[in-house]
Structure formats: structure tokens, C-alpha cells
């Protein structure tokens, strides 16, 4: 069962949900940028500069969080997102490397 913040445990991460989350190019961009940053890097959701409304941005980050790819923490009036690198690599070895190697549009 996911924790109270909507973050599933590593063992509860489902391949179908993870693949559906990264099927969207904007969400893949978020994961790639976090994967390219030093481990433990957290960024505000707005810092990614995605060309979408605030409501759509919230949706994209919710999908990533519920799939288990990111952890979000409230920081005042914003949310910080960090890649759950260890959990993703443990559950789906090589996935982050595949995403990092993808040709960007």
C-alpha cells in the first residue's frame, strides 16, 4: 500500500504504471533531467519549464509520484521533486540508463 503521500514502496512499483508514466514526452524530460543531476537533487516542479498550465503540471508530477519515479516534498508554497534513483534501479535495473540514452526531440 502506498504511504500517506502517495509514494509507493519500491516493491510496489508496477512496470505498467512506470512505463505509462514515462510514455509522455514531458514526463520523460523530467525523469531524464533528474537522472542527469547529482543523486539527491531536488527541484521545484516549475523549474523544469514545461510548456503547460499549472493544473497540467500538477497532473504530470502526480503521475510520476504515483508510479514511484519521484518523491515530492512540500516546501512552503511549492513542491520539490527528487528522483527515487535507488528504488527505480533496484526495481527496474537499467531503466534510467535507457531513458538517459534516448534521443531528445
From TrEMBL:
The UniProt GO MF terms for this protein read: DNA-binding transcription factor activity
Q: What is the lineage of its organism?
A: Bacteria, Bacillati, Actinomycetota, Actinomycetes, Kitasatosporales
Q: Where is the HTH arsR-type domain?
A: 7-103
Concerning CDD domains, the annotation shows:
HTH_ARSR
Alphabetical list of InterPro entries matching this protein: ArsR-like_HTH, HTH_ArsR_DNA-bd_dom, WH-like_DNA-bd_sf, WH_DNA-bd_sf
An example Pfam family from this entry, by short name, is HTH_20
Q: What superkingdom heads the lineage?
A: Bacteria
Q: What name does the UniProt record give this protein?
A: ArsR family transcriptional regulator
Amino acid at each position: 500500500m502506498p504511504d500517506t503521500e502517495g509514494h509507493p514502496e519500491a516493491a510496489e512499483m508496477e512496470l505498467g504504471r512506470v512505463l505509462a508514466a514515462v510514455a509522455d514526452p514531458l514526463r520523460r524530460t523530467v525523469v531524464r533531467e533528474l537522472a542527469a543531476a547529482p543523486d539527491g537533487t531536488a527541484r521545484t516542479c516549475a523549474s523544469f519549464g514545461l510548456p503547460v498550465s499549472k493544473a497540467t503540471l500538477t497532473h504530470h508530477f502526480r503521475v510520476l509520484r504515483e508510479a514511484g519515479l519521484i518523491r515530492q516534498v512540500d516546501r512552503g508554497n511549492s513542491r520539490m521533486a527528487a528522483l527515487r534513483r535507488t528504488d527505480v534501479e533496484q526495481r527496474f535495473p537499467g531503466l534510467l540508463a535507457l531513458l538517459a540514452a534516448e534521443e531528445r526531440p
